[in-house]
Amino acid sequence: MLRVADSMYDGYMPDSRFFRLFSPLVFYHTAATNSIVLGENAADDIDAAIDKTLINTYMSHPEYVEVTEDDLARAGALHEEITQPLHHKVEYVRREDDVPDEQFDTPLVIVVDKPNFWTFNGDYYLQFLQNYVSGNWYKGGESNYSMVASATLQANYNNKQKVKFENKLELKLGFQTSRGDTLHNFKTSEDLIRYTGKLGLQAAHNWYYTFQLIAYTQFLRNYKSNDPKVYSDILSPLNLNFSLGMSYSVKALDGKLTGSIQMAPLAYNFKYVGRSALATSYGLEEGRHTLNDFGSECTFDLTWTLSELIKWKTRLYGYTTYKRTELEWENTITFQFNKYISTNVFIYPRFDDGTSERDDDLGYWQFKEYASIGFAYSF
After folding, report:
1. Confidence tier at 97 by pLDDT (50, 70, 90)
2. Do 326 and 354 contact (CB within 8 A), yes or no?
3. Residues 6+ apart with CB under 8 A from 64
4. 177 within 8 A of 145, measured Cβ to Cβ
């Protein structure tokens, strides 16, 4: 609603700029009514002056009238939305006294853990094989039972500052029965105790100057079917091979192929045979117990994980004095059915021209092979 200031009472008529400032203009019916009613009470000169000014404005500038008195009546009177006073809840917290500093008599102990550069792992398996052949089987043959147990333990040191020390102990023992053998209830099919130690000083990224020791013998006596002769025994023979050379740490095929390759142009081999009767069978002179010679040595020790279920471990060992040569190639293919059950296929060709016995068909080559199924565990 527009009400005109007191200055209008003196006859001052504001121009259009005044109404543009206070627009919109309200049309009051009472102003028009009062201007035409005769005998209007003139006691309120101020109201009469305001009504006159409004009528003049309505007549001079009707374009500024946008709201009527009826519109204001329909809009209703002004009111406050908040009808009740607001009360804020205030929470009071008691101030605690400052906690006094306490003196402890217990001395402060600082523990600093040293880095552990050692890693340990191992593989174990115990497997069995049973073969039944009836007495009238058209191809002949005989029933037998066999078992083989194996444990491989490793303890390796690597300080990440050019020094590596690797240790591996392999234990393997297997037995088999044969109805056709009237002298022995069972014979050994696998018999091995072997330790491999390697001390390396890093020369390049994967190359190390290496000193290596390989020592191996067996647990029990070994026989042939229906033959009382002992062909090997614990410490008969015992082989120690010391070599100095370089090794290469293998990690290829996205980590699926791992292991090491050792090449030593300088190697010393010591062989001991406790049983004098076996001396010539292992390249010693008759009546001697030891053999010392020098030569060159190489070892390939690799593991190839073809898939989650198939793994191939291979070890190729060669030693030569340039007069005699020993070559061993051990292959173990493992089919892992689940965490604890697996099948192993073992293939082992060997060459040794230092023995006194030469086979008419195979010469100095020797072969061993078996397949087994049973329990296996790794950590």
Report:
1. low
2. yes
3. 16, 19, 20, 23, 24, 25, 57
4. yes
Q: Side chain identity at 285, as an amino acid letter?
A: E
Secondary structure in 3-state letters for the chain:
CCCCCHHHHHCCCCCHHHHHHHCCEEECHHHHHHHHCCCCCCCCHHHHHHHHHHHHHHHHCHHHEEEEHHHHHHHCCCCCCCCCCCCCCCCCCCCCCCCCCCCCCCCCCCCCCCCCCEEEEEEEEEEEEEECCCCCCCCCCCCEEEEEEEEEEEEEEECCCCEEEEEEEEEEEEEEECCCCCCCCEEEEEEEEEEEEEEEEECCCCEEEEEEEEEEECCCCEEECCEEEEEEECCECEEEEEEEEEEEEEEECCCCEEEEEEEEEEEEEEEECCCHHHCHHHCCCCCCCEEEEEEEEEEEEEEEECCCCEEEEEEEEEEECCCCEEEEEEEEEEEECCCCEEEEEEEEEEEECCCCCCECCCECEEEEEEEEEEEEEEC
Tokens of 341: 């059950």
- pLDDT grade for 236, boundaries at 50, 70 and 90: very high
Residue 58 Cα distances to 9, 55, 203, angstroms: 17, 5, 108
Percent with pLDDT over 90 in the chain: 48
Residue 80: burial class (beta carbons within 10 Å; 0-12, 13-18, 19+) = exposed
Note the pLDDT tens digit of each residue in 23-54. Answer: 567 777 777 777 666 444 544 567 777 777 87
